[in-house]
Design a protein that fits this description.
12% strand; four-stranded antiparallel beta sheet; 238 residues; alpha+beta
Length: 238
């Protein structure tokens, strides 16, 4: 009998590749709870991220249940009040102060691709506001993560942090979970600090939604483009 290659077990590299390439930002989640033991397992795996001189600069605040709901409600209340919202700003520049190509074009495309799927027109400010608000509700995910770093740490530690965040997302994906990393939370760092009773030495890096994707929602069909290798890599042979 001839073996069916499609049913052959995946090799180690294929499993890792699948977890990486199937990861995407999910913007609608099922209410299905995620067991604490599974969350701890993901964080144990993620903690193997490299860091300069093993400093391990990441600090993670895992919010579920009432704690997640309280933080979401506090931020949404500020976001929906224009005067309050204007009083909140990011502590660090996640995005460039001045957009140039090709980054501007990529940013615009993903925004309009998402709004196009949702049927939100360019002039529909009310629905745009409502969709952005969903960031602060963790897109209804049962788990909200807030990542912080000690202010004493410098740029190299932020690079290390990025590798840790990627590990969290890939480890979650390997276990059938999905995520959405969210810089949107940085605007409301003061509210986050108050609600989580953060020490003044801690700085908010970003948030993340984590749970099981609701694949009945059209926004979760969005797959973003990636530049070809020739567009970002230079091979130097001599």
């Amino acid at each position: 009998m001839t073996a069916d290659p499609s049913r052959a077990p995946l090799g180690p590299h294929a499993i890792v590749d699948h977890a990486i390439t199937s990861r995407r930002s999910i913007r609608a989640f099922l209410p299905t709870p995620v067991p604490r033991a599974l969350l701890e397992e993901i964080l144990v795996v993620a903690s193997r991220a490299p860091s300069g001189t093993n400093t391990q600069p990441w600090q993670v605040h895992v919010l579920t249940g009432a704690a997640r709901a309280r933080l979401a409600a506090a931020i949404v209340a500020a976001y929906d009040d224009p005067e309050q919202a204007r009083s909140h700003s990011e502590e660090y520049a996640y995005y460039p102060r001045e957009w140039v190509e090709p980054y501007l074009g990529r940013r615009r495309k993903v925004g309009w691709d998402l709004y196009g799927l949702l049927g939100i027109g360019k002039a529909d400010k009310t629905r745009m506001h409502a969709q952005h608000r969903r960031n602060y509700q963790f897109f209804d995910a049962p788990v909200g993560l807030i990542f912080t770093i000690d202010r004493v740490m410098e740029q190299g530690s932020w690079l290390d942090y990025g590798m840790f965040l990627q590990n969290v997302m890939v480890a979650a994906r390997a276990r059938g979970l999905d995520t959405c990393p969210q810089a949107a939370f940085t605007q409301f760092h003061r509210i986050i600090g108050r609600e989580l009773q953060l020490d003044d030495a801690q700085m908010v890096v970003c948030g993340m939604s984590l749970g099981y994707a609701d694949m009945s929602r059209i926004e979760n069909t969005l797959v973003t483009d990636r530049a070809p290798v020739a567009g970002f890599a230079r091979f130097v042979d001599d």
